[in-house]
Amino acid sequence: MADEIKFSEDELKSLQELQNSYQEKQLQFGQLKVQNVLLSQQLSALEAREVELEEEYGEVQKSEQKLVEDLNKKYGPGSLDPATGVFTPQPAEPAVADVPDMAKAPAADAEA
Q1: Are 90 and 79 in contact (CB under 8 A)?
Q2: Residue 109: per-residue pLDDT
Q3: Residue 104 in domain
Q4: Which residues form the domain of 22?
Q5: How many domains in the chain?
Q6: What residues pair up with 80 in beta bridges, in sequence order?
Q7: In a domain, 61, yes or no
Q8: Which end of the chain has the lower number of beta carbons within 10 A, N or C?
């Protein structure tokens, strides 16, 4: 059997420091993984909230369309100044029968 060799205090200290460094890195890896999991959960929650907000935004748009339709039925087409509440009706376009057809109108200089 070979003779036993006892490490020096400095060598034992170096080995202990190395072991402590490995344990510290393992702990840091664990902490990093936990942070990663928490961030992933936050991201999932944000994405879910984004989907909810998109749906709510669509509902607001539907409400706006319904209100515009109702107001157009009541007041006709026009524009509203939301700051003053003043509604300006759109000028009525002349009916097709009211517009003279230039092709059928007699030419003023056709007889000259």
Answers
A1: yes
A2: 55
A3: no
A4: 9-90
A5: 1
A6: 87
A7: yes
A8: N
Average pLDDT, the chain: 88
- At 53-77, the pLDDT tens digits run 999 999 999 999 999 999 999 989 9
CA distance 37 to 31: 10
Whether residue 16 is contained in a domain is answered as yes
Asked whether the beta carbons of 80 and 86 are under 8 A apart, the reply is yes
From residue 34, how far is each of 37, 38, 39, 41, 81 by CA, in Å? 5, 6, 9, 11, 54
**Given this model, what pLDDT does residue 2 score?**
83
| C-alpha–C-alpha distance, residues 43 and 36, integer Å | 10
- Which residue, chain included where needed, has tokens 């170096």? 14
Model-level pTM?
A: 0.55
Q: Which two tokens stand for residue 79?
A: 């524009």
